[in-house]
Automatic annotation (TrEMBL):
<dbReference type="Pfam" id="PF00528">
    <property type="entry name" value="BPD_transp_1"/>
</dbReference>
<feature type="transmembrane region" description="Helical">
    <location>
        <begin position="182"/>
        <end position="202"/>
    </location>
</feature>
<keyword id="KW-0812">Transmembrane</keyword>
<dbReference type="InterPro" id="IPR051393">
    <property type="entry name" value="ABC_transporter_permease"/>
</dbReference>
<feature type="domain" description="ABC transmembrane type-1">
    <location>
        <begin position="93"/>
        <end position="308"/>
    </location>
</feature>
<feature type="transmembrane region" description="Helical">
    <location>
        <begin position="131"/>
        <end position="152"/>
    </location>
</feature>
<keyword id="KW-0813">Transport</keyword>
<keyword id="KW-1003">Cell membrane</keyword>
<comment type="similarity">
    <text>Belongs to the binding-protein-dependent transport system permease family.</text>
</comment>
<protein>
    <submittedName>
        <fullName>Cellobiose transport system permease protein</fullName>
    </submittedName>
</protein>
<keyword id="KW-1133">Transmembrane helix</keyword>
<keyword id="KW-0472">Membrane</keyword>
<feature type="transmembrane region" description="Helical">
    <location>
        <begin position="286"/>
        <end position="309"/>
    </location>
</feature>
<dbReference type="InterPro" id="IPR000515">
    <property type="entry name" value="MetI-like"/>
</dbReference>
<dbReference type="InterPro" id="IPR035906">
    <property type="entry name" value="MetI-like_sf"/>
</dbReference>
<feature type="transmembrane region" description="Helical">
    <location>
        <begin position="97"/>
        <end position="119"/>
    </location>
</feature>
<feature type="compositionally biased region" description="Polar residues">
    <location>
        <begin position="1"/>
        <end position="18"/>
    </location>
</feature>
């Protein structure tokens, strides 16, 4: 048998014995692999400049009073105190939650149905339909908002034209709180249902077909297979779409801003959290307060995401 491996040693000129080589420091290791670090440095430099610095600066700015041009003045917790006592902020939070409910639940439901149909063997031209359902997601959001503004126009909208064909009086969609929220929700559904359907489709295709074949042999119906096989196996995918939809739903801005303006339309029905932040920071030039609203929104999104995660995971634990 061969000799056991010896630790690498280095020779000390002042001694006749060999001593173990010292471990390299962090600096020497970085210098040794400097070419590799240099190759990946552009990403980290760009992230530090355009990602990390704005985040840290916004936290610092949230404790300041600043109009974007003059000298900053330390404001302590006044920005946060005003935020939690401002009725318009909570109105924006309520509008955002309502739009999220109106859009996310139907969106994920339709996405699951579309994915199930696209995965069915009897559907022809499936690739064509997959591309078609995904196209709204890559369409310019400003262009989509302009198109939907013509659809929901109070006087000459396409929707009111179809209602007139059935003798129904025109509805002033953009002059009512529920009408504005409905229009924004439909825009969100139209844009994101295909994206989530593709994600669900990938999850469906990862489920082994032997499970469905075994269930069919045991006499299970299609509905039973859907709720006993499809839904449990798709639970991680459903959790992912719920969390991403929550994060996206809490950040709705362009739809409301293009559709009804910076104030959220009549009675502020379309005033979302991000639109409120934009108005205070970039219209009214309260950059310190706008930063505080941004961090408040971050906390709300984190809490709401954790709540949704616990609900979905809790439902899964009961089923198991």
């Amino acid at each position: 048998m061969g000799q056991p491996l010896q630790k690498r040693t280095q020779f000390d000129p002042g001694s006749s014995m060999q001593v173990p080589e010292r471990k390299r420091g962090l600096g020497s290791e970085i210098w040794k692999h400097r070419k590799e670090y240099l190759a990946i440095s552009p990403f980290y430099i760009l992230f530090a400049v355009f990602g990390l610095f704005p985040i840290l600066f916004s936290m610092y700015l949230s404790f300041q009073k600043w109009d974007g041009i003059g000298v900053m003045t330390f404001n302590g917790l006044n920005n946060y105190q005003f935020m939690v006592t401002d009725p318009e902020f909570w109105k924006a939070v309520g509008n955002t939650l309502l739009i999220w409910i109106y859009s996310t639940i139907p969106m994920l439901f339709f996405a699951l149905i579309i994915a199930f149909l696209l995965n069915a063997s009897f559907v022809r031209f499936r690739t064509f339909f997959r591309i078609g359902y995904f196209l709204p997601n890559v369409t310019s959001l400003v262009a989509v908002a302009i198109v939907f503004s013509t659809v929901f126009s109070n006087n000459y909208g396409l929707l009111n034209y179809f209602l007139s064909l059935f003798g129904i009086s025109p509805v002033e969609w953009l002059n009512k709180t529920w009408g504005i929220q409905l229009a924004v929700s439909i825009m969100v559904i139209w844009r994101w249902v295909g994206y989530n359907a593709i994600i669900y489709l990938a999850g469906l295709q990862s489920i082994p077909t032997v499970l469905y074949e075994a269930a069919k042999i045991d006499g299970a119906t299609g509905i039973q297979s859907f709720f006993r096989i499809t839904i449990p196996n798709l639970r991680p995918i459903i959790l992912f779409t719920v969390i991403t939809s929550t994060i996206g739903g809490m950040q709705i801005f362009t739809e409301s801003q293009v559709l009804v303006g910076n104030d959220g339309g009549v009675s502020g029905g379309g005033l979302t959290i991000v639109l409120y932040l934009y108005r205070e920071a970039f219209v009214n030039n309260y950059f310190g307060y706008g930063s505080a609203v941004g961090w408040g929104m971050f906390i709300l999104i984190a809490l709401f995401s954790i709540f949704n995660w616990r609900v979905v995971q809790g439902g899964g634990a009961k089923d198991e």
